[in-house]
Design a protein that fits this description.
With 240 residues, this protein is α/β, with parallel strands linked by helices. The chain contains nine helices and six strands, in the order αβαβαβαββαβαααα. The longest helix is centred in the first third of the chain and has 19 residues, at 39-57.
């Protein structure tokens, strides 16, 4: 806010604050750690968990799955298209020509295909009212990305589930490390990525209400917990 004011040389601007809380979103985080030695086997385990989620929460709306890389998007697309032929589409920066990318997006926006697998290139500026399930197949690279992406869910105000996969055997870390290596020549960019990843790591592994954490990140102090996220549900079970 201060940056915007200073850049625009605004003198005593009127600031309007709105409540950022969205009570229709149920936030879940799921440990998909697998002890198999081969990466392919660990990914197969994660994909099985993904399919169970889709079976559980996908009813009459749309499903949006975020993956960190185009390779992950393409692999997931090939697998899910075999399971649900004609119902799956994808979106990332390497799809060409641009007209084809727009056709894939159109199919999802108009409900002709119910499941979209995408990188973060999808989330900005997309307003679809009936996305009932958002899944992060990989841990996001920043809290800003995560908040922006779960914000795609149920813009119509109805209930939606947002599920964040994470692992403790380093598979997602390996993906993140590649982003850091690409930015290595730009020291400040690499530091920013590391800082963002640390915030995501803390969000995943602490025992705070997920909604409260997200609001705190956006500088909205919240005492009231959501009572429905993974952390709140676990505390409620433990207190019985």
């Amino acid at each position: 806010m201060d940056i915007i004011r200073d850049r625009l040389h605004m003198d005593k601007p009127v600031i309007l604050r709105s409540d950022l809380r969205r009570d229709n979103l149920i936030l879940l985080k799921k440990d998909v750690t697998c002890q198999k030695k081969l990466l392919e086997e660990r990914l197969e385990f994660r994909i099985k968990k993904l399919c169970k989620l889709i079976d559980k929460y996908h009813k009459d709306g749309l499903v949006l799955i975020f993956a960190q890389t185009t390779t992950y998007v393409d692999a997931l697309y090939n697998i899910l298209e075999e399971i649900s032929p004609g119902d799956v589409t994808r979106y990332h920066s390497r799809i060409e020509p641009e007209r084809h990318k727009k056709e894939l997006l159109f199919d999802f926006l108009h409900g002709e295909r119910k499941i979209m697998i995408a990188t973060s290139a999808f989330s900005m500026g997309i307003d679809v009212p009936d996305i009932e399930l958002v899944v992060h197949f990989n841990a996001p690279i920043s809290m800003t990305d995560y908040i922006q992406q779960i914000g795609r869910a149920r813009r119509d105000g109805r209930k939606a589930h947002c599920v964040l996969f994470y692992d403790q055997n380093g598979d997602d870390d390996a993906v993140s490390d590649r982003f850091i290596k690409k930015a290595k020549k730009q020291l400040q960019a690499a530091k920013t990525i590391k800082s963002n990843l640390n915030q995501v790591h803390n969000f995943i592994h602490n025992d705070n209400c997920m909604v409260s954490d997200i609001l705190e990140y956006q500088r909205q102090h919240e005492v009231k917990t959501c009572k429905r996220c993974t952390v709140c549900a676990q505390k409620r079970r433990n207190s019985r």
